[in-house]
Amino acid sequence: MRRIAATFAIAGLALTGAFNSALAADANPALVQVVESRSAQERARDGARHPVETLTFFQVEPGMTVAEALPGGGWYTKILAAYLGAEGTLYGVNYTDRMWPMFGFATEDWVKERVAATAQFPTQVKDFTDNGIAAKGFTFNTVPPEASGSVDRVLMIRALHNLSRFEADAGTLSQALAAVRGMLKDDGLVGVVQHRLPESASDEAADGSRGYLKQSAVIALFDKAGFELVAASEINANAMDKPGPEDTVWRLPPSLRVSEDNPEEKAANQAIGESDRMTLLFRKAS
């Protein structure tokens, strides 16, 4: 419990400019080396994603077993695979197969690609590193027996909004959090980074369909699922992101979807930068 207590101790710095510096100073040199050894293109988003500070806050260490929710193109996967090393294990956890067709834009070919990506996760990891790390892909409803009660960290980085979006109709978020709880060791932790909507926004606006959730709602959802908050951080905050009633997170970099044909709007959204994000750490409730 020493590491968790230490996290509480530094959480009080979350609203000061010293917080990121304190985390960076406390970072494992091996993590810093992995992050800094990537190409300039790969490092281009570090100023918005703060991988060293974020993984330090989540207390990720070499040799751990880590489950990464929605690994996607592998931005964090590449860092994690190299950092965890040969003694580590990395799981890529995707939405259940039945969830992909729920997206309004989903085509048959897109759904097939997303479903196939789960089984391809070990190959993706091998493309990133030949260090011998164990890797496996599965979905929230196909957790293999060896993963049950064996995971040190579950990382849900920008992974909650769509699970929340379809919760009312399909119970997607409840099922995912139950799976996460089942994967974790008794002393395991869940790290969350999520696009954040101001608490003053309506609950309807924060259902996940715009990419945003309220921090209070996320904490309440985890509480209901049998977790308790360990600490909250402003590592990934962006005070310039002040979404209006109709704004989606995808108006901002890197997507810039709504302003492709409007140079002035595009420039304004680029000036805001990436979204304001909550960074939360949870453990199983005792």
Automatic annotation (TrEMBL):
Q: What SUPFAM superfamilies is this protein classified in?
A: S-adenosyl-L-methionine-dependent methyltransferases (SSF53335)
In the UniProt record, the signal sequence range is 1-24
Q: Which GO terms describe its molecular function?
A: methyltransferase activity
GO biological process: any one? methylation
| Top-level taxon of the source organism | Bacteria
Q: Which residues form a coiled coil?
A: none
What keywords is this UniProt entry annotated with? Methyltransferase, Signal, Transferase
- Protein name, as recorded: Methyltransferase
The protein's organism comes out as Pseudohalioglobus lutimaris
Q: What is the lineage of its organism?
A: Bacteria, Pseudomonadati, Pseudomonadota, Gammaproteobacteria, Cellvibrionales
